[in-house]
Amino acid sequence: MSTVVLSDQFSLVNSWINELRNVETQHDRLRFRRNMERIGEIAAFEISKDLDTKEIEIQTPLDKIKVQEIAVQPVITTILRAGVPLFQGILNYFDKADCGFVAAYRKHDANDYFSIKQDYLTCPNIDGRPLIIADPMLATGASLIEAIKDLLTNGSPSQLHIVVAIASKQGVETIEKEYPNAKIWVGAIDERLTSKGYITPGLGDAGDLSYGEKLQR
């Protein structure tokens, strides 16, 4: 489909991304989570314009009226734990949606290189329904591709939307190649990845900034 960069034309999204990146503000966890949530809300609003609609009739206090409504409610999913605030923003707007969750993480070695570990998925039937995946950081694309593969075992969605706060150019190109029918909604795209697969300038670890540093066993 296409990739939409939400910050291409200046709006409040740019200000929220600035705060997500800025070391002077990003350690305010409440603000960090809320800014992620806001980006999710804006993405959800834009996605709603792409969804199929149906005509229904409703009764107002004065008369009946025919209006347009979402034809099929989407399924919203995310990768735990970093994706939860972005996911919540999308759910705030698609408040009738069903939800799914994937547990995946980077397993680091002594040299800080990593492999993708994924060991949990819960999701409703997505057959014929729009599927929205929230993943705050799209670096190499490896973990997102694994998550999508598992999610698609639950059916064939009518549309695939991917919502990302910060992406690398390489990650976007990888997803576009692997899933050409997907539509990516991204806050901002950074040009580079480090040799260890981190987005730069990026913003750091979205999960740690949302919920605190973790021990990895």
From TrEMBL:
Top class in the EC scheme: transferase
Start and end residues of each Phosphoribosyltransferase domain: 12-212
SUPFAM superfamilies hit by this protein: PRTase-like (SSF53271)
EC numbers on record: 2.4.2.9
Lineage of the organism: Bacteria, Pseudomonadati, Bacteroidota, Flavobacteriia, Flavobacteriales
UniProt entry keywords in alphabetical sequence: Glycosyltransferase, Transferase
Originating organism: Chryseobacterium edaphi
Protein name: Uracil phosphoribosyltransferase
Residue ranges crossing the lipid bilayer per the database entry: none
Database matches in CDD domains: PRTases_typeI
Entry-linked InterPro entries: PRTase-like, PRTase_dom, PyrR_bifunctional
GO molecular function, one term: uracil phosphoribosyltransferase activity
